[in-house]
Structure formats: C-alpha cells, structure tokens
Write a structure and sequence with these properties.
Length: 277
C-alpha cells in the first residue's frame, strides 16, 4: 500500500521546509498537512509561499489537508469563539467557520492536494437534526468550492454522535452529497470497533488516519511501539490489504517524549503494518 504521514506529529512546531525535508529524507512519499495556526497558518501567504517552493523543487507530495479546527494557536483554549465547526446553528457563526475552511482550501492554488479532511462537529458532540442540516448546508458550499480547485472533501469518523461510521453513512445516503470518507482507525476503535466501522464505510473510503489507543481515550499512539495501544493490527491490515492502492496508510500520530526520533519509528511502523499477517 502507499504510505503517507500527517504533519500532526509535529503540530506543536511551525511547519517549515526543514521539517518537510526530514520527512522526505525518511523515505515517506506523501504528507497530510494539518491546519493549526501554530503549525500551518492557512492565512499566512508568506508561509504558504515558502512551502510552495519546497514542494515544487522536491518529489514530496501533498496527499491531503486537514481542515482547521480552531482559529487560535492553542488548540481552542482561548475560548469557545475559537472553534471552527460546520454544525454551528447560528448562521453568522457558521458562515465564518465556512469562510475559514475556504481560506484553507485556497492552499491548493499554491500547493495542489487531492483531499480535504473535514469533521462534522467536535469530539463528544450530541446528535441534533438541526446540526445535521447545518452541516449539509455547509458541505454543499464547501464541496463546490473545493472541486473548483481540484479538491475532494472527505468526511472523517470522529468520536461524537454525529460522525460515527453509521451516522456518516446515513448522512450521505440521505443527503446524496457526493463525498468520500477518511477512515480513522483510532476513532473507530473508540466507537463501533475497527472491523464494524470499516464494513460500513468501506465503499467510500479514499484516505485513512492510522493510529492506536486503549479504546477509551483518543491518544493517537504509535502502533506497535507505544504502551496502551489495543487495536488488532493484523486484523486491520487484513481489511485494508484487499483494497490495494485505493487509499494510503496515512499515519496520524501525536508527538511523544518516548520517541525522540519519531521518523525512524514511523518507518518501522510502516514495515510492521506491511508485514502484519
């Protein structure tokens, strides 16, 4: 299978050509860039222009861009006003959120990428029919805006009552939106389980987020190496492997002190995933 790495693993650092060169030198052919103001400021044309020079001069590809979650640079800790969500019930606030996501999509005008990874709601959010309607309205607009720039929107399964595998499948069946899925192993493990979620989402999966947890907390652990991981990777790979190159193995990991040389460990994770029976 094809390999890719989310820059979520270095999200606490400003994304620079130095970091990207390290990823490329580690033999990783593609990245998903994580939109977080302290990492990639999607409104900073100087940073985007600098990164654009790197991607034009090397073989590293941008597979996808993770849609922004917050407007601040401290993971939303500045307050509720910083949350970017397409389930916002107040139209002016939802319009602002959609505008922020559009600005991120415009990244493709400088650095082409294929997929935008989008959440419906935030972690732990309860189900509400009005929020489903809000998300539908926002996604209609975003998907058109994205397609005009050569980008497809993918919905990610996340641990809330709006975005389980079952809810996402029902959402697309009911709205007839022509969107695909980003299958998140860790989030599936927190909800239906990897095998059950994969069965529901399989036909629409176009990308992945591969990471581990203990089944209770969304920790984005390093598969095989971090203590506390409980996903059955042999079983997971038996689900993925028949799909061939339809989607990549894309690691979305959280930086951890016990892995001082994370890219070396990432390379070993890919090897172990590929050799899993």
């Amino acid at each position: 299978m094809n390999h890719a790495l989310s820059t979520h693993i270095i999200a606490e650092h400003r994304l620079t050509m130095v970091w990207l060169e390290r990823i490329w030198q580690a033999g990783i052919p593609a990245v998903e860039i994580f939109c977080a103001k302290q990492h990639l400021d999607w409104t900073d044309q100087a940073q985007i222009g600098e990164l654009g020079h790197f991607f034009r001069d090397t073989g590293l590809k941008v597979h996808s861009l993770h849609s922004p979650l917050y407007t601040d640079d401290v993971w939303g800790r500045s307050g509720p006003h910083s949350v970017i969500t397409i389930t916002e019930l107040e139209k002016p606030k939802r319009v602002q959120a959609v505008d922020q996501i559009k600005r991120a999509i415009e990244f493709a005008e400088t650095i082409p990428f294929r997929y935008l990874i989008q959440h419906i709601g935030v972690a732990g959010e309860e189900y509400d029919d009005r929020k489903v309607e809000a998300a539908f309205t926002a996604l209609e607009e975003l998907s058109t805006f994205a397609r005009n720039r050569g980008v497809e929107v993918l919905l990610e399964n996340i641990p809330n009552a709006l975005s389980s595998a079952e809810r996402l499948t029902a959402f697309l069946d009911e709205t007839h939106l022509d969107l695909g899925f980003c299958f998140d192993t860790g989030h599936a493990h927190l909800k239906e389980g990897v095998e059950a979620a994969f069965a529901l989402m399989k036909d629409r999966i176009r990308s992945t987020h591969v990471h581990d947890n203990d089944g209770a907390t969304d920790r984005h652990l390093f598969p095989f190496f971090a203590p506390g991981g409980a996903i059955d990777w042999e079983k997971t790979m038996s689900l993925f492997r028949p799909c061939g190159d339809r989607f990549p193995l894309l690691l979305e990991l959280k930086q951890a002190a016990e892995f001082p040389h994370p890219l070396e460990t990432v390379t070993q994770i890919f090897q172990k995933l590929e050799s899993a029976a």
